[in-house]
Amino acid sequence: MSEPFITKHTSYLRIEKWEKLSPSLTVGFSTKIGGISKPPFQQLNMGLHVQDNQQDVIENREKLAEDLSFPLSSWVVGEQVHDINIKTVTKQDVGSGASNYDTSISNIDGMVTREKGVFCTAFFADCVPLFFFDSKQNIIGVAHAGWRGSVHGIGQQMVERFRSLGSDPSDLQAVIGPCISKKYYEVDEQVITHIPKPFHSNSVTVKQNGRFNLDLKQLNKDILLQSGVLRNNIGVTNYCTYEDSELFFSHRRDNGKTGRMLGFIGFSD
User: Fold this and answer.
1) Which of these, 36, 122, 140, 251, is most buried using a 10 Å CB contact count?
2) Given 3.60.140.10, 3.40.50.2000, 3.50.50.60, 1.10.10.60, which CATH number is that of 6-180+217-267?
3) What CDD domains would the database entry show (predicted)?
4) Could you count the other beta carbons within 10 Å of the beta carbon of residue 144?
Protein backbone atom coordinates (compact mmCIF):
# COMPACT_ATOMS: atom_id res chain seq x y z
CA MET A 1 0.00 0.00 0.00
CA SER A 2 1.23 3.49 -0.81
CA GLU A 3 2.44 6.00 1.79
CA PRO A 4 -0.67 7.22 3.68
CA PHE A 5 0.84 10.58 4.68
CA ILE A 6 1.05 13.51 2.27
CA THR A 7 3.32 16.53 2.87
CA LYS A 8 1.85 19.85 1.77
CA HIS A 9 3.11 21.91 4.72
CA THR A 10 6.47 21.75 6.51
CA SER A 11 4.85 21.59 9.96
CA TYR A 12 2.60 18.58 9.45
CA LEU A 13 1.73 15.53 7.36
CA ARG A 14 -1.87 14.77 6.36
CA ILE A 15 -3.81 11.55 5.71
CA GLU A 16 -5.27 13.09 2.58
CA LYS A 17 -7.16 9.98 1.48
CA TRP A 18 -9.36 10.16 4.58
CA GLU A 19 -9.83 13.91 4.31
CA LYS A 20 -11.14 13.46 0.77
CA LEU A 21 -13.70 10.94 2.04
CA SER A 22 -14.95 13.43 4.63
CA PRO A 23 -14.35 17.12 3.87
CA SER A 24 -14.90 18.11 7.52
CA LEU A 25 -12.14 15.73 8.70
CA THR A 26 -8.68 16.97 9.72
CA VAL A 27 -6.16 14.20 10.40
CA GLY A 28 -2.39 13.99 10.47
CA PHE A 29 0.91 14.20 12.31
CA SER A 30 3.07 17.21 13.10
CA THR A 31 6.78 17.52 12.34
CA LYS A 32 9.39 19.37 14.40
CA ILE A 33 9.69 22.19 11.84
CA GLY A 34 8.37 25.70 12.32
CA GLY A 35 7.99 26.37 16.04
CA ILE A 36 9.76 28.57 18.58
CA SER A 37 11.03 26.04 21.14
CA LYS A 38 14.74 26.22 21.91
CA PRO A 39 17.27 23.34 22.07
CA PRO A 40 16.91 20.49 22.80
CA PHE A 41 13.22 20.92 21.97
CA GLN A 42 13.65 22.87 18.75
CA GLN A 43 11.43 23.80 17.02
CA LEU A 44 7.80 22.71 16.99
CA ASN A 45 7.60 20.85 20.30
CA MET A 46 4.00 19.95 21.13
CA GLY A 47 4.62 18.36 24.55
CA LEU A 48 3.92 20.24 27.78
CA HIS A 49 5.39 17.39 29.84
CA VAL A 50 9.05 17.48 28.68
CA GLN A 51 10.53 20.41 30.65
CA ASP A 52 10.29 22.80 27.71
CA ASN A 53 9.22 26.40 28.34
CA GLN A 54 5.46 26.12 28.79
CA GLN A 55 4.61 29.35 27.00
CA ASP A 56 6.72 28.33 24.00
CA VAL A 57 4.79 25.05 23.76
CA ILE A 58 1.45 26.83 23.99
CA GLU A 59 2.55 29.20 21.21
CA ASN A 60 3.58 26.20 19.11
CA ARG A 61 0.20 24.61 19.69
CA GLU A 62 -1.62 27.82 18.84
CA LYS A 63 0.38 28.13 15.61
CA LEU A 64 -0.49 24.58 14.56
CA ALA A 65 -4.11 25.09 15.60
CA GLU A 66 -4.27 28.15 13.35
CA ASP A 67 -2.61 26.32 10.45
CA LEU A 68 -5.14 23.49 10.79
CA SER A 69 -8.14 25.80 11.43
CA PHE A 70 -8.86 23.83 14.59
CA PRO A 71 -8.73 26.15 17.65
CA LEU A 72 -6.73 25.11 20.70
CA SER A 73 -9.91 25.41 22.78
CA SER A 74 -11.28 22.36 20.93
CA TRP A 75 -8.27 20.10 21.63
CA VAL A 76 -8.61 17.09 23.92
CA VAL A 77 -5.38 15.79 25.50
CA GLY A 78 -4.86 12.57 27.45
CA GLU A 79 -2.27 11.93 30.15
CA GLN A 80 -0.60 9.02 28.26
CA VAL A 81 0.61 6.45 30.78
CA HIS A 82 1.72 3.65 28.40
CA ASP A 83 -1.40 1.60 29.13
CA ILE A 84 -4.42 0.55 27.04
CA ASN A 85 -7.23 2.67 28.47
CA ILE A 86 -9.54 4.38 25.97
CA LYS A 87 -12.07 7.17 26.48
CA THR A 88 -14.98 8.18 24.27
CA VAL A 89 -14.66 11.96 24.28
CA THR A 90 -17.32 14.60 23.66
CA LYS A 91 -17.76 18.37 23.52
CA GLN A 92 -17.70 18.30 27.34
CA ASP A 93 -14.03 17.27 27.19
CA VAL A 94 -12.72 19.97 24.86
CA GLY A 95 -9.92 22.07 26.31
CA SER A 96 -8.70 19.27 28.58
CA GLY A 97 -4.90 19.48 28.63
CA ALA A 98 -4.86 21.99 25.77
CA SER A 99 -2.94 24.70 27.63
CA ASN A 100 -2.11 22.96 30.91
CA TYR A 101 -0.86 19.38 31.25
CA ASP A 102 -2.45 19.08 34.70
CA THR A 103 -5.91 19.30 33.13
CA SER A 104 -5.27 16.38 30.74
CA ILE A 105 -7.71 13.47 30.94
CA SER A 106 -6.01 11.12 33.38
CA ASN A 107 -4.93 7.56 32.70
CA ILE A 108 -5.77 7.25 29.00
CA ASP A 109 -3.69 6.51 25.90
CA GLY A 110 -6.46 6.55 23.31
CA MET A 111 -9.62 8.46 22.51
CA VAL A 112 -12.60 8.06 20.20
CA THR A 113 -15.36 10.46 19.19
CA ARG A 114 -18.24 10.88 16.78
CA GLU A 115 -18.85 14.53 17.68
CA LYS A 116 -17.85 17.53 15.60
CA GLY A 117 -15.60 20.20 17.05
CA VAL A 118 -13.63 17.70 19.15
CA PHE A 119 -9.93 17.58 18.22
CA CYS A 120 -8.50 14.26 19.43
CA THR A 121 -4.76 14.35 20.08
CA ALA A 122 -1.82 12.21 21.20
CA PHE A 123 1.91 12.91 21.52
CA PHE A 124 4.87 10.99 20.15
CA ALA A 125 8.66 10.77 19.85
CA ASP A 126 9.19 7.11 18.73
CA CYS A 127 6.01 5.43 20.01
CA VAL A 128 3.38 4.37 17.49
CA PRO A 129 0.50 6.65 16.47
CA LEU A 130 -2.62 4.66 15.58
CA PHE A 131 -5.33 6.50 13.64
CA PHE A 132 -8.86 5.14 13.10
CA PHE A 133 -11.77 6.20 10.89
CA ASP A 134 -15.16 4.62 10.16
CA SER A 135 -16.62 6.67 7.31
CA LYS A 136 -19.98 4.87 7.51
CA GLN A 137 -20.58 5.64 11.18
CA ASN A 138 -18.49 8.86 11.24
CA ILE A 139 -16.43 7.72 14.21
CA ILE A 140 -12.76 8.64 14.58
CA GLY A 141 -9.97 7.99 17.06
CA VAL A 142 -6.27 8.13 17.84
CA ALA A 143 -4.11 6.05 20.18
CA HIS A 144 -0.59 6.21 21.60
CA ALA A 145 1.10 2.80 21.45
CA GLY A 146 4.50 2.45 23.07
CA TRP A 147 5.92 -1.04 23.38
CA ARG A 148 3.75 -1.71 26.43
CA GLY A 149 0.61 -0.41 24.78
CA SER A 150 1.46 -2.33 21.62
CA VAL A 151 2.10 -5.72 23.25
CA HIS A 152 -0.93 -5.37 25.52
CA GLY A 153 -3.13 -4.62 22.53
CA ILE A 154 -4.24 -1.01 22.60
CA GLY A 155 -5.02 -1.43 18.90
CA GLN A 156 -7.47 -4.21 19.74
CA GLN A 157 -8.97 -2.08 22.51
CA MET A 158 -9.57 0.73 20.02
CA VAL A 159 -11.30 -1.65 17.60
CA GLU A 160 -13.49 -2.95 20.44
CA ARG A 161 -14.41 0.60 21.45
CA PHE A 162 -15.45 1.36 17.87
CA ARG A 163 -17.48 -1.86 17.85
CA SER A 164 -19.26 -0.81 21.05
CA LEU A 165 -20.26 2.44 19.30
CA GLY A 166 -21.85 0.56 16.40
CA SER A 167 -18.89 0.20 14.06
CA ASP A 168 -18.16 -3.01 12.17
CA PRO A 169 -14.40 -3.77 12.16
CA SER A 170 -14.63 -4.56 8.44
CA ASP A 171 -15.66 -0.93 7.82
CA LEU A 172 -12.86 0.46 9.96
CA GLN A 173 -9.84 2.11 8.36
CA ALA A 174 -6.58 2.38 10.27
CA VAL A 175 -3.24 4.07 9.69
CA ILE A 176 -0.02 3.31 11.57
CA GLY A 177 1.93 6.55 11.70
CA PRO A 178 5.57 7.66 12.05
CA CYS A 179 7.45 5.84 14.83
CA ILE A 180 10.81 4.20 15.40
CA SER A 181 11.47 1.50 12.80
CA LYS A 182 12.62 -2.06 13.42
CA LYS A 183 16.16 -1.26 12.27
CA TYR A 184 16.69 1.17 15.15
CA TYR A 185 14.52 -0.38 17.85
CA GLU A 186 16.70 -2.79 19.79
CA VAL A 187 15.20 -4.30 22.95
CA ASP A 188 16.08 -6.95 25.51
CA GLU A 189 14.43 -10.28 26.26
CA GLN A 190 12.29 -8.77 29.01
CA VAL A 191 10.36 -6.80 26.38
CA ILE A 192 10.06 -9.77 24.03
CA THR A 193 8.56 -12.02 26.73
CA HIS A 194 5.52 -9.72 26.83
CA ILE A 195 4.73 -10.21 23.14
CA PRO A 196 2.16 -12.96 22.45
CA LYS A 197 3.92 -15.86 20.70
CA PRO A 198 1.81 -15.77 17.49
CA PHE A 199 3.20 -12.31 16.71
CA HIS A 200 6.90 -13.18 17.14
CA SER A 201 7.65 -14.45 13.63
CA ASN A 202 6.61 -11.23 11.88
CA SER A 203 7.82 -8.63 14.35
CA VAL A 204 10.86 -9.98 16.23
CA THR A 205 14.39 -10.58 14.92
CA VAL A 206 17.11 -12.09 17.11
CA LYS A 207 20.47 -10.30 17.00
CA GLN A 208 23.89 -11.90 17.47
CA ASN A 209 24.40 -10.06 20.75
CA GLY A 210 21.42 -11.82 22.31
CA ARG A 211 19.21 -8.78 21.97
CA PHE A 212 16.31 -8.27 19.58
CA ASN A 213 14.96 -5.87 16.98
CA LEU A 214 11.25 -5.22 17.40
CA ASP A 215 9.03 -4.07 14.53
CA LEU A 216 6.34 -2.03 16.27
CA LYS A 217 4.60 -1.19 13.00
CA GLN A 218 4.25 -4.85 12.04
CA LEU A 219 3.19 -5.86 15.55
CA ASN A 220 0.40 -3.29 15.58
CA LYS A 221 -0.66 -4.23 12.06
CA ASP A 222 -0.92 -7.91 13.03
CA ILE A 223 -2.95 -7.01 16.13
CA LEU A 224 -5.35 -4.94 14.01
CA LEU A 225 -5.71 -7.79 11.50
CA GLN A 226 -6.47 -10.23 14.31
CA SER A 227 -9.05 -7.74 15.62
CA GLY A 228 -11.00 -7.83 12.36
CA VAL A 229 -9.65 -4.83 10.46
CA LEU A 230 -9.26 -5.74 6.78
CA ARG A 231 -5.75 -5.87 5.34
CA ASN A 232 -6.64 -3.42 2.56
CA ASN A 233 -7.95 -0.98 5.17
CA ILE A 234 -4.64 -0.68 7.06
CA GLY A 235 -2.11 1.89 5.93
CA VAL A 236 1.45 1.78 7.26
CA THR A 237 3.82 4.71 6.94
CA ASN A 238 7.38 4.40 5.71
CA TYR A 239 8.50 7.28 7.94
CA CYS A 240 10.88 6.49 10.82
CA THR A 241 11.16 8.99 13.66
CA TYR A 242 14.71 7.87 14.50
CA GLU A 243 16.05 8.00 10.95
CA ASP A 244 14.22 11.11 9.71
CA SER A 245 16.07 13.53 11.99
CA GLU A 246 15.18 16.59 9.88
CA LEU A 247 11.46 15.96 10.35
CA PHE A 248 10.96 14.30 13.72
CA PHE A 249 11.94 14.22 17.37
CA SER A 250 13.17 10.82 18.58
CA HIS A 251 13.38 9.88 22.25
CA ARG A 252 15.96 7.18 21.55
CA ARG A 253 18.09 9.09 19.04
CA ASP A 254 18.06 12.25 21.17
CA ASN A 255 18.86 10.40 24.41
CA GLY A 256 15.54 11.15 26.05
CA LYS A 257 15.82 14.95 25.99
CA THR A 258 13.63 16.02 23.11
CA GLY A 259 10.27 17.35 22.01
CA ARG A 260 7.06 15.64 20.93
CA MET A 261 5.07 15.48 17.71
CA LEU A 262 1.27 15.59 17.67
CA GLY A 263 -1.04 13.00 16.17
CA PHE A 264 -4.43 14.59 15.55
CA ILE A 265 -7.88 13.81 14.19
CA GLY A 266 -11.13 15.74 14.35
CA PHE A 267 -14.33 16.71 12.54
CA SER A 268 -14.73 20.48 12.22
CA ASP A 269 -18.03 22.08 13.21
Assistant:
1) 122
2) 3.60.140.10
3) YfiH
4) 24
